[in-house]
């Protein structure tokens, strides 16, 4: 097997998930700067800093939900071509965010969000369709690894932002004049151009599955031989197993063959967001200065918040790396259960610590919670969804994921006011119990299964053969 080519190709494809992670968090360190430099006081729609932060912060997930909704359709024109097209759109969105205008910033972030939403569908789909069975675990986690690298780099770039206070506790005049945010916001555009050039001139192939869907068996075999020159000799595949793949129509996702895989994938995506992770990711600065009086943070509070946020990014990445060897040994379901157990214990501990206002232990268990999230549903979701679902199914699951991201990011400030910090932790602990039971009783293990076995994981062989024959007959009707 040509491992150097395969890993280089898949890492290049994984750049799409890097963009998703980076674009989600790059804004958080520049809130004060953007609010001060964009004349929002003259805007009748945005009354205060909180409104500005909420609108601009949620622009990316709103765009991403729309992108995920259309991701399956864009995948039908070609996975590679779709990525190149979306990279162009990402460049446009990035350029618009450079304009010092509130509505330009909002529109630019919506376009950037739409782009990363489509990439969140195309990237794991592409990797899953190319990955050999024996490497499906390590390659499957590549999506989340690249995402966490993007998050970590995004937090690192936040150090370019001057703090709103000086060490003496006075307003920092630098936030009114700095252009550091432009350097950080332009990076996705530069990466998108590089990504497209690599796909145009170096890794010029689409997936074997896509080539078979469009009837190009020659190219499908060429890609397989590029990955592993001995693949056909090893498998000695009969012709019927390498025949043309049938594209699954949207209407067929409610049939018995695809219905339960769709339901399981969408519910797993929902529980990923309902763990409480986005309370940490979107509001990490607030979590790490929760002991200070709102509106009266000191310079040291701001430094601690930035350091804490950086710790979040590093732990995110490190825990994902730990998942790679565990997937091969323990499988997807066991890791999901371990992750939810660890998150549950961490959230209960966080609630207790919040009662006694112990900030050091809150930080410790926040880090523990993030680690277990990445070991479990954080790393497994994209891999598992791509294994059991079609491109349309993945698209639907990610619409659920992004929609809940929007909802949680909008209501979290109000939930903090209503429930308090401890109430929020205990609420998410209860949700994690439900998620744990769902995984235990309904999620099936996919480790080590062939692509044909994965198609029948949530259906029977009879249903599989019937649906495949029906789709083939609909597409190629017989003349009598």
Automatic annotation (TrEMBL):
Keyword Iron: no
UniProt xrefs under InterPro entries: MFS_dom, MFS_sugar_transport-like, MFS_trans_sf, Myo-inositol_Transporter, Sugar/inositol_transpt
Signal sequence bounds: none
SUPFAM superfamilies assigned to the protein according to its UniProt record, in alphabetical order: MFS general substrate transporter
Pfam families xrefs: Sugar_tr
Broad class of the protein's primary localization: membrane
Compartment(s): Membrane
Catalyzed reactions: D-galactose(in) = D-galactose(out); D-fructose(out) = D-fructose(in); D-xylose(out) = D-xylose(in); D-glucose(out) = D-glucose(in)
Keyword Transport belongs to the record: yes
GO molecular function: transmembrane transporter activity
Assembly mode: Homodimer.
Name of the protein in question: Hexose transporter 1
């Amino acid at each position: 097997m040509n491992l150097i080519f395969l890993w280089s190709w898949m890492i290049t494809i994984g750049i799409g998930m890097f963009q998703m992670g980076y674009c989600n968090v790059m804004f958080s360190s520049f809130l004060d700067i953007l609010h001060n430099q964009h004349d929002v006081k003259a805007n009748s729609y945005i009354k205060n800093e909180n409104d500005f932060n909420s609108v601009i912060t949620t622009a990316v997930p709103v765009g991403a939900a729309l992108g995920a909704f259309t991701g399956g359709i864009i995948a039908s024109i070609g996975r590679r071509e779709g990525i190149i097209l979306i990279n162009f759109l990402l460049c446009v969105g990035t350029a618009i965010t450079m304009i010092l205008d509130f509505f330009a910033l909002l529109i630019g972030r919506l376009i950037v969000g739409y782009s990363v939403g489509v990439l969140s569908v195309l990237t794991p789909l592409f990797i899953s369709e190319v990955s050999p069975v024996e490497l499906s675990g390590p390659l499957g986690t590549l999506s989340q690894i690249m995402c966490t690298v993007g998050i970590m780099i995004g937090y690192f770039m936040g150090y370019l932002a001057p703090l709103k206070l000086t060490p003496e506790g006075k307003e920092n005049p630098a936030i009114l004049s700095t252009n550091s945010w432009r350097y950080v916001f332009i990076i996705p555009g530069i990466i998108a151009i590089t990504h497209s050039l690599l796909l145009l001139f170096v890794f010029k192939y689409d997936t074997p599955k896509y080539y078979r869907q469009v009837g190009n068996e020659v190219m499908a075999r060429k890609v397989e031989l590029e990955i592993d020159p001995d693949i056909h000799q090893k498998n000695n595949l009969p012709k019927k197993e390498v025949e043309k793949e049938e594209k699954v129509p949207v209407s067929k996702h409610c049939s018995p063959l695809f219905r339960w895989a769709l339901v399981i994938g969408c519910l797993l995506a929902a529980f990923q967001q309902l763990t409480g992770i986005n309370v940490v990711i979107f509001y990490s600065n607030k979590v790490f200065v929760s002991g200070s009086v709102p509106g009266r943070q000191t310079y040291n509070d701001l430094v601690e918040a930035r350091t804490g946020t950086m710790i979040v990014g590093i732990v995110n990445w490190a825990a994902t790396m730990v998942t790679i060897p565990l997937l091969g040994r323990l499988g997807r379901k066991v890791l999901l259960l371990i992750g939810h157990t660890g998150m549950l214990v961490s959230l209960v501990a966080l609630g207790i610590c919040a009662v006694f206002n112990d900030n050091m232990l809150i930080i410790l268990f926040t880090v523990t919670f993030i680690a277990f999230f990445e070991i479990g549903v954080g790393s497994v979701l994209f891999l598992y969804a791509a294994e059991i679902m079609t491109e349309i199914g993945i698209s639907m699951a990610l619409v659920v994921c992004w929609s809940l991201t929007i909802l949680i990011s909008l209501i979290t400030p109000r939930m903090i006011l209503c429930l308090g910090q401890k109430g929020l932790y205990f609420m998410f602990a209860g949700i994690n119990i439900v998620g744990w039971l769902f995984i235990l009783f309904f999620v099936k293990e996919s480790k080590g299964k062939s692509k044909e076995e994965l198609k029948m994981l949530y259906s029977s062989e009879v249903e599989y053969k019937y649906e495949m024959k029906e789709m083939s007959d609909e597409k190629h009707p017989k003349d009598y």
